[in-house]
Design brief:
Shape: globular
Low-confidence stretches: none
CATH superfamily: Calycin beta-barrel core domain
Structural class: mainly beta
Number of strands: 10
CATH topology: Lipocalin
Order of helices and strands: HEEHEEEEEEEE
CATH architecture: Beta Barrel
Distance between the termini: 29 Å
Mean pLDDT: 93
Largest sheet: 10 strands, antiparallel, barrel
Strand content: over 45%
Number of domains: 1
CATH class: Mainly Beta
Number of helices: 2
Helix content: 10-25%
Radius of gyration: 16 Å
């Protein structure tokens, strides 16, 4: 039953969204607001295969079981800076319970322009997707909580990347967002 609930979360995410965010840069002691418009669409099997190959990930016999999406967004900060990006993503699950875990694969990372594999967990009771990505210099922990099919709450905490096997401690960025379906 839980895999179906995980898929239902993603089904609600398909569509056009509008986001208002606030970013707190702790190292610079600055706060910045931004607006993002984005579109989430189902991914094609061809793009799924490419994401798996780009990340040197094993190809399953049935690509249809992997939730996957194409994401396009444009962000405008209050200073007028614009950032546009598009990427393809896949979620490869490892378990089927109240908390689903696995790998989150992208053909292009947000922080670094390269394919990347991250970890995720989905808490069915909270309808929350938590994604942890280890970049070269930082570790991003991104949470999306689906409140209802038209409203999501986003929280992003970025840490300085610690030495191997050390806990995350030094926070450099905290972001909060309200995402509404357009």
């Amino acid at each position: 039953m839980s895999i179906q609930e995980f898929q239902a979360f993603f089904d609600c995410c398909v569509g056009k969204w509008s986001t208002e965010r606030t970013y707190h840069y702790l190292t610079k002691r600055e706060v910045e607001r931004s607006h993002t418009d984005f579109v989430v669409e189902p991914i094609t099997d061809t793009a799924k295969l490419q994401v798996l190959q780009d990340n040197q990930f094993p190809i399953p016999t049935n690509l249809e079981i992997l939730p996957g999406y194409h994401l396009e967004f444009e962000t405008v900060s209050e200073t007028g800076e614009k950032v546009s990006q598009q990427l393809n993503m896949l979620f490869v699950t490892e378990g089927n319970g109240k908390i689903i875990t696995g790998q989150y694969l992208r053909d292009r990372a947000y922080e670094e322009d390269r394919p990347i594999v991250a970890d995720f967990q989905f808490d069915i009771s909270k309808c929350e997707l938590l994604m942890t990505t280890k970049y070269t210099r930082v570790v991003a922990v991104d949470s999306i909580t689906l409140i209802n099919p038209n409203l999501r709450i986003r929280k992003i905490i970025t840490y300085c990347r610690p030495e191997d096997n050390q806990p995350l401690q030094e926070v450099v960025l905290v972001g909060f967002g309200v995402e509404q379906k357009a």
